[in-house]
Amino acid sequence: MKGDLYLAWSSDEEIHKKGDSGGAVTSLLKFALESGMVDAVLAVKKRNGNRYDGVLSLLTDPDEVIEAAGTLHCAPVNVAKVVKEYLDGAKGMKMAVTCKPCDARAIIELAKRGQINIKNLILIGLNCTGTLLPALARTMIKEEYEVDPDDVVREDIDDGKFIITLGDGTKKERHLNELEEKGYGRRENCRRCAINIPRMADIACGKWGTKGKKATFIEICSQTGSELMERAIGAGALMVEPPDEKSIKEREKKDKDGIELAKAWEKGDLDVLRWLPYEDRLKYWLRYFDRCIKCFGCRDVCPICYCQDCYLEPARGFVHGGQTPPHVMFPLVRLAHVADSCINCGQCQDVCPMEIPLTKLYHMLNRELSSMFDYIPGMDVSDYPPLTTVTDEELAIDDVNVFKKNSVSQ
Ligand code: SF4
Ligand code: SF4
Ligand code: SF4
C-alpha cells in the first residue's frame, strides 16, 4: 500500500549484475510487460553503447528491457513530450514509463489538461539530483578527471560529489560545487531542483538508503504502484526485505542534503535577481530578450506548451514574421502561459541557441506564484493550476498591489 518501503533486487542473475542497484527497476519493468500489466515500456537506452547518447526507447519484448538497465546521468531526455506527441492515445496502449521527478511532474501537468491519459501509464519514478549535458560532461571528464570519457562505465552523484567509475573499477570523484563554479556539472535548472524523490509517480526508486548493498530502495506512492510491486514479488521477479531504521534515516538525510544544496543554488541564482531594483531587473532581462532569434526552440521543446493554435505564430498577428529580435511580448507571452505550470525541467534552456537563461525566468515567477497560491505544479493530478481556478478574492486589486509592491521593493 501507499507509503510501503522496500529494499529490492532482481532475482534474475544477469539483471542483478547489469543493473546499477541490483536491477530491481529492470525486473519490475520486465515483469510489467510479461504479466500483461502494460503493452510497452518506455525507458532510456544507450545508442550504440554510448552512455553520452541516451535515447528514449519503446520496448515491447521483455527480453529487450535489460538493454535499458543502468543509470545514465548524461541523458536529459524529454519523457513527457515524447509520451504526449508520439505515444499517448496510441490505440490505448498501456505503458510503464521510467521518469525523473521533472518528467513525472510534466506528465501530471499534461494529464490535468487532457493531453495525456495518465490511466494508461505506470510511472516508475527514479530519484534524481541532477543530469548533465552530454557534450559538456565529456569535456568535463576529459579536463577535470583527466580520463577518456569513453572509459567511464558508471556515474554517480552522492555526498555533493560527481563520481565516475572506469572500466577497470577505478573511481574518481570531484565536488559538485567545484565543478559547477567552473561551469561544468549539473544543468543549471537541476542545481535548483529540490524534488529528488519522485513521490508523485506510482513508485519511487533510488539507491539512497541501501547502505552499500546492491539493491534499490523503493517507496510505494499509489495503488497502481502497490499492485505492480506485490505482483512482481509474488511472481518471484523481485527479492525484497524491509529497510531498517538506519536505511530510512540515511535516505532521509541524503534527500535533505539534496534539498539544502538546491536551496542554496536557488538563493544564489534567483534571490540576487529578485532583490534588484525593478528597473535593473527589467534591464537584465531585456538584454537577454534582445538576443532572441525567434527560433521557436523553447516553445517546441517545452513539455508544458501544448496549444494547437499558438499565440506566437505570425498568423495570429501578435508577433510579426521576420522581426528579429521579436517584440518583447514574445518571451513574455510564453512566460505568462507556463509560469504557473513550469516544472523547471530545463529543456527550453538546453535548446536555446542564444544561451538565454530561460529557466531562471520561469523558475523565478513560478516560485512567486507557488508561494502566493500554495501550489507546486506536477505533484497531484487532481490539484489544478491557480490561474485556472482563480477566485474573485485572489483577483482582488489589493492582493495584486501587495504582490507588485513586494516584488518591486524587496
Ligand atoms: S530538473 Fe530535477 S528531476 Fe529533472 S533532471 Fe534536473 S534534478 Fe533531475
Ligand atoms: S518553461 Fe522550460 S523549464 Fe519550464 S516546463 Fe517548459 S521547458 Fe521546462
Ligand atoms: S530558444 Fe532562445 S532564441 Fe529560440 S525562440 Fe526561444 S528564447 Fe528565442
Q: How would you sum up this structure, described in words?
A:
This protein is α/β, with parallel strands linked by helices and 410 residues long. Helix content is 40%, strand content 16%. It has two domains: 5-129 and 195-247; 276-409. The protein is built from 15 helices and eleven strands. The chain has an eight-stranded mixed beta sheet with strand order 3-2-4-5-9-10-1-11. Strands 6-7-8 form a three-stranded antiparallel beta sheet.
Structural class: alpha/beta
Provide the residue-averaged pLDDT: 91
| SSE run | EHHEEHEHEHEEEHHEEHEHHHHHHH
Q: How many domain regions?
A: 2
Q: What strand order characterises the main sheet?
A: 3-2-4-5-9-10-1-11
Helix content: 25-40%
Low-confidence stretches: 402-410
In DSSP terms, counting alpha (H) and pi (I) runs of 4 or more, how many helices?
Answer: 15
Largest sheet entry: 8 strands, mixed
Backbone CA Rg: 22 Å
CA(first)-CA(last) distance:
46 Å
Q: Which ions and ligands are bound to the chains?
A: iron/sulfur cluster
What structural keywords apply?
alpha/beta, binds iron/sulfur cluster, 40% helix, three-stranded antiparallel beta sheet, eight-stranded mixed beta sheet, disordered C terminus
